[in-house]
Amino acid sequence: MTQTLHLAQALLPDGFADNVKLVVANGTITSVDAGAQPGPDDERLAGLTLPGMPNLHSHAFQRGMAGLSERRGAPEDSFWTWREVMYRFLDRLDPDDVQAIAAQAFVEMLEGGFTALAEFHYLHHDKDGRAYGDIAAMAGAIAAAAEETGLGLTLLPVLYRFGNFGQAPSVHGQRRFVNDRDSYLRLIEASEAAIRTLPDARLGLAPHSLRAVALDDLDWLAKLRPDGPLHVHVAEQMREVEDSLKITGRRPVELLMEHAELNPRWCLIHATHLSDGERDAIAVSGAVAGLCPITESSLGDGIFDGVRYRDAGGRFGVGSDSNIQIDAGAELRQLEYSQRLRDRRRALMAEEDASTGVALWRASALGGAQACGRSIGRIAPGCRADLVTLDDDHPALVGKAGEAALDSAVFAANALPLRDVFVGGRRVVADARHLAREAVKTRFATVMRKLLGAL
After folding, report:
1. Structural domains of the chain sorted by starting position, each given as residue range(s) with its CATH number in brackets
2. Which residues pair with 289 in a beta bridge?
3. Known catalytic residue: 125?
4. Which of 65, 120, 181, 386 is deepest in the core (most CB within 10 A)?
5. What angle do CA 389, 395, 396 make, to 5 degrees?
6. What is the DSSP letter of 164?
7. What is the pTM of this model?
8. The Formimidoylglutamate deiminase N-terminal domain covers which part of the protein (predicted)?
9. Is the distance from CB of 355 to CB of 21 less than 8 angstroms?
10. DSSP result, 398-426
11. pLDDT tens digits for 275-322?
12. Is pLDDT of 391 > 90?
């Protein structure tokens, strides 16, 4: 199938251009022609069109528990008390519940400017911890939600074996996550089958964290799929760093670098608490730092050193993680504002005399594409036609174009002011509303009433 789109204005790899004609064949851009007049059969997109933003880290089921963890624990509240709330919530979920919750999250991602997702998927087993007859039943629920909503998917089945550094036993709340190597191999095979019918879907692998796997699992995983993406949680919390030092004698990123070859396949999720040497080594390796600024703020994780990491040439992208708020512009804004609060200066993630919104969008789209292992994140030949068109009549954008419009979309709108979203050339959002919004919302509401009634 071939289609032609005419974009009034678009962000191309070398900057903004007017009157951009795209030819798209089977979901992939085959040609880009700036300064072209629209043809009579072209589909015309007004406003400002951007490459869709990849979401490089999500736990889709957590959208169902958003807002349930805001009661202060005793004697204090932290990531670790939040984790107990999460364990209690997931105790009740079955695959149908997960599919309904994931579909709602995916609709909100598409309405928030995310066109692709790397789903860090660790909820595998039944409520008693035993595998389902189909060991990838939960992965199948994620795939079905992606198919229903049209979101591009990189599925990352997570290996989770232990409860802490030093191969400490897992705890009761983790029973639905745990696999040994043999069952994990079966999970990978079944997960690959689950995504086989999705257009341009990709399978990657993910050791959950250095707390949750044996150190020799890292090399084993890397060799299982020599060309696929590898994601890992690392150095999110100071307690994690302290435990790693106490038990192994190394900081988490030091430990990772000793037991795995960091390279562009890797995405290090959070990587919040780094020494200068760790930060620069990640940048040099070509790995991606997977930042989730809204969730990291919510959990009190700390502030990633984005300015010095960027100055070292580091690659990064953003993810919605716990899905308490799903909006690509809000993630970018929170990332920039965290740097401003720490350093008490402005426009820190851009080069001198450059647009902060453009710098953040472009870098995050490229880093997210790398982390997803897919040809996305640019409006260029050979890339999937994943597009987000901003509404230039929105109050935050009216009268603006190019850099000023994108800066305003990120920093001056309550939510990303989009109009249309295409994934692989297929329109999935029109006039800011997902085409399946009402059906997905109705099913989600039924599941949530059931789950909250049980709570």
Report:
1. 2-50+379-438 (2.30.40.10), 52-372 (3.20.20.140)
2. 268, 316
3. no
4. 386
5. 70
6. B
7. 0.97
8. 5-44
9. no
10. TT--HHHHHHHHHHSSSS--EEEEEETTE
11. 999 999 999 999 999 999 999 999 999 999 999 999 999 999 999 999
12. yes
